[in-house]
Specification:
Order of helices and strands: HHHHHHHHHHHHEEEH
Shape: elongated
InterPro entries: Cyclin, Cyclin-like_sf, Cyclin_N
Radius of gyration: 20 Å
Strand order of the largest sheet: 1-2-3
Distance between the termini: 43 Å
Protein name: Cyclin N-terminal domain-containing protein
Structural class: mainly alpha
Pfam family, one: Cyclin_N
Strand content: 5-15%
Largest sheet: 3 strands, antiparallel
Oligomer: single chain
Length: about 260
């Protein structure tokens, strides 16, 4: 799977050469992944078992994403021409219909990058940092999200969780004054919006593999330093906030108790 997964990322080169938004390619990858997750096992093996068929699926997903997210107009013949004869205009159109049918036409769901913007739109009202800080910060978060999509196990995580994971990772590597401003706000948003969600199991674990170093900085949320657990979540007990780990045996162990001050509340 990882071998064919690498084929997915030729759309980024296509976007750069055509001066399209890289976010459009994230939409395409999301469409491709959701399609593979919604079809039968035999259909999934059909596309994953052949480089040509998988490229057809990815290219058609790009075609759908362009029509959804770009002002550029292109037709199925143009997409077929990109394959240099590997597949026809009719193959593109048939695959497009298969994708749209499998996804019930839900092709424009929020992506990880869009969730990053949603979270930051909340955080920026709570944190006052120079405008010059945000552009490089968002760029680094975007790179982490793109890197996360190259790992299939991360790509199948909910987009909101991958977004928050990348935000926490990048924040942990900022200068101290930026980190101290951002972390409490991100933890607050994460606790209220994400961490109580059952799909958040594994938050903070997967993207650690993509970082050079994270270190053991005490300012980094503890859940980011626990790759041995399968997931973490917050819970209140006796008016005190605790972070729990769900182990592989589904048992629950309190691994740290947070004060309001530590959470910036």
């Amino acid at each position: 799977m990882e071998r064919v997964r690498r084929l997915t990322f030729s759309p980024y080169r296509f976007a750069d050469s055509c001066k399209m938004k890289r976010e459009t390619m994230v939409v395409a990858i999301d469409i491709c992944d959701r399609f593979l997750g919604s079809v039968s096992t035999s259909s999934r093996h059909h596309f994953l078992g052949s480089k040509v068929w998988y490229q057809l699926l990815v290219t058609t997903s790009v075609y759908i994403a362009i029509k959804t997210a770009e002002d550029t107009v292109c037709d199925s013949q143009f997409i077929a021409d990109l394959s240099r004869g590997l597949y026809s205009k009719e193959s593109v159109e048939r695959t497009e219909l298969d994708i749209l049918t499998a996804l019930d036409w839900h092709v424009n769901v929020p992506t990880s990058i869009q969730f990053v913007y949603i979270v930051l739109s909340i955080v920026r009202h709570q944190v006052h940092l120079p405008d010059s800080t945000w552009a490089p910060f968002i760029n680094e978060v975007s790179i982490q999200v793109e890197n996360g999509l190259k790992d299939y196990q991360l790509a199948i995580m909910p987009s909101s969780i991958l977004a928050l994971d990348a935000l926490l990772n990048v924040t942990s590597r900022q200068e101290c004054h930026i980190k101290h401003s951002l972390l409490p706000a991100l933890v607050r948003v994460g606790r209220e919006q994400f961490l109580m969600c059952p799909q958040s199991q594994g938050l903070g674990v997967g993207l650690l593999r993509l970082q050079d170093t994270l270190g053991n900085d005490n300012d980094v949320p503890f859940l980011m330093q626990c790759p041995e657990v399968a997931g973490c979540y917050y819970e209140e007990e006796n008016n005190k906030k605790k972070i729990f780990a769900r182990g592989v045996n589904e048992s629950h162990t309190c691994i740290r108790q947070f004060s309001d001050a530590e959470l910036g509340l």
